[in-house]
Design goal:
About 45% of the residues are buried. Helices cover about 35% and strands about 20% of the residues. It contains 15 helices and 21 strands. The structure holds iron/sulfur cluster (SF4). Iron/sulfur cluster binds near residues 165, 167, 170 and 256.
Length: about 475
């Protein structure tokens, strides 16, 4: 590093897609000669990668930008970059409200991050938002760009961007655009490259992964390719990714219940590398609310497919998302959600209290909003139901020996390691031998809580294969 090299730090809010975009922005900045720092005080460039799905995202962003104004005033050559969904949605508003921001970029031009930073340095503030994805592999898919990953043993791989659905509570289709699938061969090539670098776990990313390939098939058929009728489908992609030598674990997020097909369950069951974990977003258990949300399935259909998944895939863990207090939700609607959640017996759930996101259909249903106190009380009741099933599922694992992937020392207690089972369950365990992050170990489960398991080290099953030096952690 030379004294003239500039440095950067990236702050990320939101989902895995955003985190993956941040890895790519970091990779592009590094390819342009900048280096990463952890402390913002040492940085020349701060990137804020925003999300508009969470509550109060805009308040939080403009609060942070107010604070960053004084950070920038300390050294005029410092730069502030705002990207992500909120920047895409608010467009020119960011620079109107915070004119000290140097670069505003949207979700369709992540690939331009380094160029825009360099351009703004000489030419002043710039806002560049594209309305649609550009039909270019590097522009479209963040995975096709250079990346700077925090871990070397696992990686996200984007297989699809955008979403063709129109869930009433969701801003994603308007900020990320229509679904576009990444070519099958490109996904496989990236996974092969990752495996060659020692990555052993990949998570396939998309807004609606199980509709992967639908657009590719349509385009191929329009071009007269009859053979394209049956491929590529998500199930085939899972099988092919799972067959890449060196890949021990394949995960994917998120599927949509209405597009879940028997072939996908079969592929999970028959491909040893594909983990026995399904994230299966319920959102609500009342058909009336599911219709208002435009989810495209009924509670009965949801439960039937879930039962089918559990029948086909042995030892399947199931997680979900549920929104409490969607506009118009009555006591009876909520009772239906509690009933479906109890019947589904989830291993874990991300539960949310509804709050309107500007730009969504649900935000216009003001006359039907449920009182906040009612929503809060329902939320607590749902939490009890979900934690009950989670604890029961976790207790059933006591005494089993499970293979875990070591993530590193526990954040709460550095004397124990944190790891994940194939079912994506968090396990804390002490080890008498040093274990590197990215190693696989057999662990006997000794205790259970609703959100984690406790275990006892049995044996090392595989050393990490990645080449980059990472800290050795010992018990
Ligand atoms: S499926 Fe629904 S919730 Fe998921 S990204 Fe698309 S619109 Fe949003």
């Amino acid at each position: 590093m030379t004294s003239t090299e500039r440095s950067y730090v990236v702050h990320t809010y939101g989902c895995q897609m955003n985190e993956h975009d941040s890895e790519r922005i970091a990779g592009l900045l590094e390819a342009d000669g900048l280096h990463a720092v952890t402390d913002q005080a040492d940085a020349d460039v701060v990137v804020v990668n925003t999300c508009c799905i969470r509550e109060n995202a805009d308040n939080r962003l403009y609060g942070n930008l107010g604070w960053l104004k004084s950070w920038k005033a300390e050294r005029p050559d410092r730069q502030i970059v705002v990207g992500g969904c909120l920047a895409q949605k608010d467009r020119d508003m960011v620079q109107t409200k915070a004119p000290w921001v140097d670069v505003v970029l949207g979700t369709h031009n992540v690939h331009r991050a380094a160029e825009l930073v360099a351009h703004a340095r000489t030419s002043g503030p710039i806002t560049e938002i594209f309305d649609e994805a550009v039909m270019d592999e590097h522009a479209l898919f963040p995975s096709a760009l250079p990346a700077r990953r925090d871990t070397s043993y696992n990686a996200w791989v984007t297989i699809q961007i955008g979403c063709d659905n129109s869930c009433a509570f969701c801003i994603v289709p308007s900020v990320r655009g229509a679904e576009i699938s990444r070519p099958f061969a490109d996904v496989i090539a990236e996974v092969e490259q990752l495996a060659a670098n020692g990555v052993s776990e990949v998570t396939l990313l998309g807004q609606n992964v199980n509709s992967y390939g639908r657009d590719l098939q349509l385009a191929a058929r329009r071009a007269g390719d009859a053979a394209a009728r049956v491929r590529p489908m998500f199930s085939e992609l899972l099988t092919a990714v799972g067959a890449v030598p060196g890949i021990r674990r394949v995960r994917f997020t998120s599927p949509h219940p209405k597009d879940m097909r028997p072939e996908t369950f079969a592929a999970i069951a028959s491909t040893p590398a594909v983990c026995e974990h399904l994230h299966y977003p319920l959102q609500a258990g009342s058909d009336r609310i599911l219709t208002a949300m435009h989810r495209g399935y009924t509670a009965r259909r949801y439960l039937e497919r879930l039962a089918e998944a559990r029948r086909v895939i042995p030892d399947l863990a199931v997680s979900t998302d549920i929104i409490v207090g969607f506009p118009g939700e009555t006591d009876d609607d909520f009772a239906a959600t509690l009933e479906v959640a109890a019947t589904a017996a989830f291993d874990s759930a991300y539960t949310f209290q509804f709050s309107p996101r500007p730009g969504t259909e649900a935000a216009t249903m003001g006359e039907c909003f449920v009182a906040r106190a009612v929503v809060a009380e329902r939320f607590e009741r749902l939490k009890i139901v979900v934690e009950r099933s989670a604890l029961a599922k976790h207790r059933a694992r006591i005494g089993r020996v499970e293979e875990v992937l070591v993530e590193g020392p526990s954040k709460r207690d550095a004397s124990v390691l944190t790891a994940r089972t194939r079912q994506n369950k968090l396990v804390h365990f002490a080890t008498p031998v040093p274990l590197r992050t990215g190693a696989y170990a057999a662990v006997e489960i000794t205790a259970a809580a609703p959100h984690h398991l406790t275990g006892r080290f049995v044996e090392l099953t595989a050393e990490p294969l990645h080449k980059r030096r990472i800290p050795v952690v010992a018990g």
